């Protein structure tokens, strides 16, 4: 079995995994970081989104071995101690979730979207969330949360 | 997924040495990994090209733009100095797919509904491999088939800058794949009209090219009737609907170029 080493939420991790282990399986089952979810498992829904070297990616469509040497950030790595990331805080304040299953992926995609955009209006946020599906259809407050967090993150 | 070995060579030569009938190349994996997950492929080993630095990057060179095979759609969207290419790349899949998927992987796969084949053929690009260069018109041969030989590795795709070009697609709202996509370009080798999504493989609409060479106007396309013969029919659209879309989208592309 190949050994894979990567940095996850700032911590160096290393493990023996079979080549066909998905990154999301590695994160959830080896590292026990279960904030990253498996929704559709077919790269449609975005519940499994994490950051790979600063770029959002669907961890159900990546092998753990492909992350060799990479810097991975999961939802558990966003907060600084007890201080939530502005995006997390904004989802909480604006009620940007209903059942919560898609939320971690939404937040990871939203952070990447805000980090890479100068100006975000309603339409560009919705377009940026193309790869994330909320089965409760709670998009209204998700978009509102991202708008509020974007302001906070710019400041 | 079935079991397989995984190799990540550091050079193209090393990668080429690892390839045989039972190995497959892994680029961004946005098609290959779902395929493996569904057990539709059973390779002995994956040869991951991601550690080969020379395969990555967008390099403008005079009136050409060379894009490394392992350059992601997101990088092309942000860095391509040919606007139509940047906008085409920004419309592929979703942000997460664009952060992983690559131009080389896309054209080697030659999905009939992929966007890049329309850019490669429409802009008359040249595909370079570790063995030779292949003209756009010779590269895409059939459904999921290309001119690539066993074990041949795409190194880059070089696009000549067009005088003007537009790509309009009618996309599937869930996958963002093209139900039909049309690239119209004024190039140094003449007017080119490339159609993706409609048939088994990207093709040039030569009748429209001739008409537009006479008069580059939407009216020039008015009397062309596009046949549905050989076009795709599926749950998204019938062949007749796709035939109609080819004309509609070509006219929109011409209108966009004429501003």
Overview in brief:
By secondary structure, chain A is of the alpha+beta class. Chain A is built from five helices and five strands, in the order E-E-H-E-E-E-H-H-H-H. In chain A, 45% of the residues are buried.
Describe this entry's structure for a reader:
The complex is a heterodimer of chains A (155) and B (259). Chain A is an alpha+beta fold and 155 residues long. Chain A folds into 2 domains: 3-77, Ubiquitin-like (UB roll) (Roll); 86-154, DNA polymerase, domain 1 (Orthogonal Bundle). Chain A is 34% helix and 15% strand. Chain A is built from 5 helices and 5 strands. Chain A has helices spanning 23-30, 86-93, 103-116, 122-128, 139-154, and strands at 3-8, 11-16, 49-52, 55-58, 71-73. Chain A has a 5-stranded mixed sheet with strand order 2-1-5-3-4, with helices on one face. In chain A, a hairpin with a 2-residue loop joins strand 1 (3-8) and strand 2 (11-16). In chain A, helix 2 (86-93) crosses helix 5 (139-154) and helix 3 (103-116) crosses helix 5. Chain A is globular, with a radius of gyration of 15 Å. Among the domains of chain B are: 1-47; 164-258, 2-Layer Sandwich (Enolase-like, domain 1). In chain B, helix 3 packs antiparallel against helix 4. Chain B contains 11 helices and 14 strands. In chain B, strand 2, helix 2 and strand 3 form a beta-alpha-beta unit. In chain B, 47% of the residues are buried. Chain B is globular, with a radius of gyration of 18 Å. A 5-stranded antiparallel sheet of chain B has the order 4-5-10-6-7. Chain B has a 4-stranded antiparallel sheet with strand order 11-12-13-14, with helices on both faces. Chain B is of the alpha+beta class and 259 residues long. The N and C termini of chain B lie far apart (50 Å). Helix content of chain B is 33%, strand content 25%. The interface between A and B is medium-sized, with 28 and 28 residues.
